[in-house]
Amino acid sequence: LRTADAYWRVSRPTRPDVRVVAAGLEPHSFTALFDSWAEHDEAAEANIAHGYKSGEVVSGAVELSRLTSCDAVLPIAALQRRPLPDHVDPHHLERHLSEPDFLEAFGMTKEEFSVLPAWKQTNMKKDVGLF
């Protein structure tokens, strides 16, 4: 969705009306577009657990906003617990820390951290329980 949104911004004067359906919960109007359709119960169960409803059609813009709301600031304790909160990138937990929490945990700013080699970042994240 993010890639499509970026493409539309530079190539089209108006954004198309994109709709998103959840795997296993597709509405009949969607499945009827195909010659054959196989039901996927496991996908349906997983998507129901994530709050989707059977037959629901969501605006692409709304879904993109929901999925990219991972910019939420969380306390370090919430990022150290499992399971992680929804929409938290498990590979970049440090991005969800406030600047003061980040400074306390890592002893440097986010900008200073970002220029470190990947191996060093990984070791530091392990040291503070964010890996």
From TrEMBL:
Signal peptide segment: none
GO annotations of cellular component type: actin cytoskeleton; cytoplasm
Entry's Gene Ontology molecular function annotations: actin filament binding; phosphatidylinositol-4,5-bisphosphate binding
SMART domains per the UniProt record, alphabetical: VHP
Biological processes per GO annotation: actin filament severing; actin polymerization or depolymerization; barbed-end actin filament capping
InterPro entries: ADF-H/Gelsolin-like_dom_sf, Villin/Gelsolin, Villin_headpiece, Villin_headpiece_dom_sf
PANTHER family: SUPERVILLIN, VILLIN
Descriptive protein name: Supervillin
